[in-house]
Amino acid sequence: MKIIMLGAPGAGKGTQAKRIAEKFAIPHISTGDIFRANIKNGTELGKKAKGYMDQGLLVPDELVVDLVVDRIKQDDCEKGYILDGFPRTIPQAEALDAALSAISEKVDYAVNVEVPDSDIVDRMSGRRACLNCGATYHIVNIPTKVEGICDVCGSEIVLREDDKPETVLKRLEVYHNQTQPLIDYYSKQGILKEVDGRKTMSDTFEDILKILN
Ligand SMILES: [Zn+2]
């Protein structure tokens, strides 16, 4: 079971990826985690990646692919894995396919968690954060006991810059420009599965299970 997760920032892709990984007892592989692990362990690939990151540069596609392929060759990936945050671009997707076919493997499903931009903007603009203690809330889903005041430390809670509609919309635009070609790519391969991410986390998860079973 080799799965790629696609979905906009704020669509709940990461949460679903974790639940799938738990359910099927396969590793949840995020590029951020791989980078951190390789840098921490001082591997050759990690050193190379750190070199780019220290200069504020994006880690090049080939290196990202090397890191991911190195990870999925490990023993715990024998039964499958779920890739979260990779591939992000067509060159990355092609490089992944090439690397997998070299070891006679292929991606089984690309699961796209679909949430309309307007819903994502609504979700994010309901978030509140305490800048003093770091606690996070949501005006509908996780309200504070006293409106506008952090439960933990009593400070005022705010809408972070990152969660403001204009910031979210900008991020979504970048996402769509990058990801639409990927959606087409996996659709042509016949492995794209779309799920409705507007439902509750649990209902969306049930839909994903139906697809994977
Ligand atoms: Zn607080």
Short description:
The protein has helices spanning 13-24, 31-40, 44-54, 61-72, 90-102, 117-125, 165-188, 201-212, and strands at residues 2-7, 28-30, 81-84, 109-114, 127-130, 136-138, 157-158, 192-196.
Mean pLDDT, to the nearest integer, reads: 93
Instruction: Write down the secondary-structure element order.
Output: EHEHHHEHEHEEEHEH
The percent of residues in helical segments reads 40-55%
Our Rg estimate from Cα atoms comes to 19 Å
Would you identify the CATH architecture? 3-Layer(aba) Sandwich
Distance between the termini: 10 Å
Total count of helical runs of at least 4 residues: 8
Sequence of strands across the biggest β-sheet: 2-3-1-4-8
* Low-confidence parts: none
Major β-sheet annotation? 5 strands, parallel
List keywords for this structure.
ATP binding; nucleotide-binding; 213 residues; single chain; 15% strand; three-stranded antiparallel beta sheet; transferase; Rossmann fold; kinase; globular; 48% helix; binds zinc ion; alpha/beta; Adenylat/UMP-CMP_kin
